[in-house]
Amino acid sequence: MGPELIICSLGGVAWLMSLGLLRRLQVPASGAGTRGMAREVSIVIPARNEARNLPLLLESIAIQSQQPIEVIVVDDDSSDGTPEIASAAGARVIGPGPLPEGWRGKTWACARGADEARGRLLMFLDADCRFEPGGLEAVLRRYAGGALAVCPFHVVERPYEWGSAIFNIVMVASTVPHGLFGQCLLIDRESYQKAGGYEAVKGNILENVNFCPRIRATGGATSAMPGKGVLNFRMYAGGPREMIEGWTKGFAAGVASTAGSTVALISVWISGLIFGMVAPFVTPWGWCVYGAFALLMVAMLRRVGNFPMVAGLLYPVLLVFYLTVFIRSLGPAGKKATWKGRSLHAP
């Protein structure tokens, strides 16, 4: 058996196995109607210096065909006019009070927002998210009780943001269909309270990842979906340093909490990407393997963000960046980080 056949056979097996990840990135079909359901939803937005992002999110909520019972912005000691912007847009603004010992700013803000909310359903939403037209209704159509998380579709505007590509794929593939994301969580109040609320995960960077097993332990269901056509966001618009810091904090801890079978599938895919990079140096037929993985990357990226085709075709650059930051997250930098002026720790 010549090297060409060996290379193509091994690459083909890894490529076929990687199709399982592509399927996970598909938005699920809609469920039943949602007439009147939005009036049971309180949207809680923890916000610390989010003057740049809040107008886009609040405007996207205002144009929804179904409106929530209320929008609560929990202003976490902002210094950029966040509370004034939120109030002018019609949101109810509350201050969470001094940050207690052992809490993170976000978990404390979410907990205080939940305490103040009137709705039977609680939606916790990061300030850098924004709904597509009809997006809130689309989320509600897919809600079957318990906790549902949505991973927003990543809107990228500058080339350095392509560095988030593989992180996005891994994040979605390792969470769908039964894990929880941190950017958007819809949960009924009973399930929230039975699981101990955000107090149960008050010190965690990946609060919803750690909240997930607690909800299940109390009999609640958990589910997750990609947000293409429903909810989007722009991550790390502040530059490459912000992006590296953001993906470093706790990312390895999140992967460690992923089911073993999923980790194995992701590992096969990553190994296939590496194999595709090396194969052309062994035999010209290796370009077939490289091309197959590059096209698969293009297809995956279209499901998690508006990454250009060239980003997928030049995936080795993205892979080297991913592996470098991932290795960094395994060390002290992944346990401790500074985010929005506060020190964070990932247990």
From TrEMBL:
**SUPFAM superfamilies per record:** Nucleotide-diphospho-sugar transferases
The record's subcellular location field reads: Cell membrane
The membrane spanning regions, by residue number, are: 251-278, 284-301, 313-331
Superkingdom as given in the UniProt entry: Bacteria
The UniProt record lists the keyword Transferase:
yes
Keywords in UniProt for this one? Cell membrane, Glycosyltransferase, Membrane, Transferase, Transmembrane, Transmembrane helix
Q: Which Pfam families match?
A: Glycos_transf_2
Instruction: Using the UniProt record, give the first listed, main subcellular location.
Output: membrane
- Glycosyltransferase 2-like domain location is 42-155
List the EC numbers from the record. 2.4.-.-
Molecular function, one GO term: glycosyltransferase activity
PANTHER family from the UniProt entry: GLYCOSYLTRANSFERASE, GLYCOSYLTRANSFERASE 2-LIKE DOMAIN-CONTAINING PROTEIN
* Protein name, per record: Glycosyltransferase
